[in-house]
Write a structure and sequence with these properties.
Order of helices and strands: HHHHEEHH
Shape: elongated
Oligomer: single chain
Radius of gyration: 20 Å
Strand order of the largest sheet: 1-2
Helix content: over 70%
Largest sheet: 2 strands, antiparallel
Number of strands: 2
Structural class: mainly alpha
Distance between the termini: 74 Å
Low-confidence stretches: none
Number of helices: 6
């Protein structure tokens, strides 16, 4: 009986090979980590680990959805999956986390970019989960460029401002 129970946890993936799933999860971890590292270096509230976990979770939810979609129902009305619900659920969940990183005090808003980065990490995780690694890498690169380039530009403008 124990052997039968344990075999349930060793069932092979139905929708994609194990190696492909592992690559997608690792890609999500690395790409989410790239954005998180930038936030960490800037001492922002949600950094490396947070962004890595968000991207990893989003990728895993995507892979789970593919697995559920690969199950063949015995009756037409037994299982129905809408993959777009996955995107909605991940977006809502990450938006909830991101909103928690935003602080408003006396007209000042802090944490907005960190919240947006968390949201993007979720999108990158979803993208990795679907196997669109090139798109995920492109989005990560653009995000890092925006974060670094605009920060450098803002610092230069502050230095050049005679009133500042």
């Amino acid at each position: 009986m124990l052997e039968n129970l344990l075999s349930e946890f060793a069932a092979p993936l139905r929708s994609i090979p194990f190696e492909v799933a592992a690559l997608r999860l690792l890609a999500a971890l690395v790409l989410g980590g790239a954005i998180g590292w930038e936030r960490e270096v800037q001492s922002k509230p949600a950094g490396l680990r947070t962004h890595m976990m968000i991207a990893l979770a989003a990728c895993l939810f995507t892979l789970i959805t593919f697995e559920l979609m690969a199950i063949t129902p015995q009756h037409d009305n037994q299982l129905r999956f809408d993959p777009l619900r996955l995107i909605e659920a991940v977006t809502a969940g990450v938006a909830f986390l991101a909103a928690g990183s935003i602080i408003t005090s006396r007209g000042n808003v802090r944490g907005l970019t960190t919240g947006a980065g968390m949201w993007l990490a979720g999108a990158i995780g979803l993208t990795c989960g679907t196997g669109r690694l090139t798109l995920a890498i492109l989005a990560t690169g653009i995000a890092l460029l925006v974060l670094w380039l605009l920060r450098a530009t803002a610092h230069k403008l502050k230095r050049d401002d005679p009133a500042g």
